[in-house]
Amino acid sequence: MQADPRAPELTAQDFVTMAHATRMCVLLHDAATKDILWANPAACEMLEWSVAELRPLKANDMSSSAQQYDRVIGRAWLQEAVDKGASRIEWHYRAKSGRVIPTDAVAVRVELERGPAVLVQFRDIEREQEVERQLRLTTSWVDALAHHTSTVALMLDAAGTIRFATNTALPLIGATPGEPLGPLTDHARLRLRGRVSTWDEVLSRADPVTSVQLEVDRPDQERVWLEGSLERLQESDGLLMILHDVSERIHGQVRREREMHRENYLARYTAMGDMAMAIAHELGQPLAAAANFLAGSRAAAPADSRVGYGIDNAVRQIERAATIVSSVRAFVGHLEHVQQVADLNDILEECLYFVGLRAGPAGVEVRVDRSPEPVLVRCERVLTGQVVLNLCFNAIDEMAVCDPQRRQLTVTTRIDGDAGVLTVDDLGRGLRHDPFERTFTDKEHGSGIGLALSYRIITRQHGAIWGESRDEGGSRFGFSLPLAS
Fold first, then answer.
1. Which residues pair with 415 in a beta bridge?
2. What's this model's pTM, rounded to 2 decimal places?
3. Is 149-245 assigned to CATH 3.30.1330.30?
4. Which fold has domain 12-125?
5. Of the CATH numbers 3.30.450.20, 1.25.40.10, 3.30.479.20, 3.30.565.10, which one belongs to the domain with range 341-482?
6. How does DSSP assign 2-22, residue by residue?
């Protein structure tokens, strides 16, 4: 681009005026001797020397006494500018008062009428260095807050995406360090006042702060509960979530509720025991009377008639009912030492007729896998049979709502070490929780006492009972009893 011929040319005095007016400090050195030839007013003001005072000074007179600012190094820096045309360095000058001034200095070779010279331009960077030091300090504080604090902190955007998380937050929400965190709701369920909520609802309540709770499911571990606040930051569009791990407190509350649930059940169980004793006592005489009446009727009925057949079966059922009543009275009383020995195969065989009556209308196929050898256990025969019925009936009821192709019940007996084991496998929906941790049923018309009584019957006979989900689907309930040997 050519200069406008109509513009007035700058004079030498104009350049002198500009050099005096600039706030950039300037020193002019002779290229050969490195002596100071001239200094502008800004340099004189910073160094507190006049031009006349500066001219005889050497590097050691006006530089820091530190080794890296030795005169030899200073001359080499200026010579590099002479040889290469320019050179840059951080140089610490020393003012007349003794103050050391850190500067960013650039040396440039210039050709004057009198010969080559070195023009040094420098500026005070002490304030910049202090700001940089404060920034490094602040950065270290932020780093300590982010990576070494026990506080759980998350930074989120308005869409609910996690932009930053402290190191303590990552394992709690199940995130992997170094990978994108994604939306908060991918890691946890949001809760407000004890109920499940959405991010949009929580965000609308952050005006500017709202309380929040996170519920985090972790595989094969207890659920994590985090509680704290969500605050909308005034200077940006981000949000800060500060949380604390309250899992122990929540789990404690659950345990206390469970204990109260058990206490309520025990009260109900005690009341049922009293009722069972009263019912068993009152049923004994009517059952005996009914048996006597049937015996009298049987004597008058022909031996091969249908009436005789019906009376004989009715008598057997009354005898079974009397046995159950007697067993209940014994169980509710003191059944601590079991002396009776029974074969689990025989107990199962006695129950299969009733299992079939329940399974048929529900379309459930019953399969039996008996132990090839007797499974002789020490137990109360009738009550143990009631446990088998309870487990089978529960499985049938579970599969009644499932796909007809999956309605299959398998009952197995076997010997395992010093115990006899009976298991009931179904292909239902599986278990959502430990069935023996809760004492009341989820069934609409259940009494809530079947599994609890089964547990009580088996454990009082020194056995164990359990329920678990199967890998191939469905659930398995079973119990073990000590072998008679």
1. 420
2. 0.40
3. no
4. Beta-Lactamase (3.30.450)
5. 3.30.565.10
6. PPPTTSPPPPHHHHHHHHHH-
Report how far apart, in Å, the C-alpha atoms of 227 and of each of 93, 153, 283, 419, 485 are. Answer: 57, 11, 57, 47, 56
CA 61 to chain centre: 66
Q: Are 341 and 377 in contact (CB under 8 A)?
A: yes
* Nearest by Cα to 244 from 225, 258, 266: 225
Contact 49, 56 (CB under 8 A): no
Supply the DSSP symbol for 68: G
- Among residues 108, 133, 241, which one has the least CA distance to residue 185? 241
Specify the 3-state DSSP secondary structure of 123: strand
**Mean pLDDT, contiguous 10-residue spans, the chain (485 residues):** 66 85 93 94 94 90 91 93 95 94 95 94 92 82 65 87 86 82 91 89 90 86 88 84 87 80 66 64 72 74 71 78 69 55 92 88 93 93 88 91 88 95 92 65 49 84 91 91 89
Give the three-state DSSP class for 422.
Answer: strand
Max Cα separation, the chain?
154
As a whole number of angstroms, the distance between CA 433 and CA 435 comes to 6
Q: How far is CA 363 from CA 397, 407, 408, 428, in A?
A: 11, 7, 9, 13
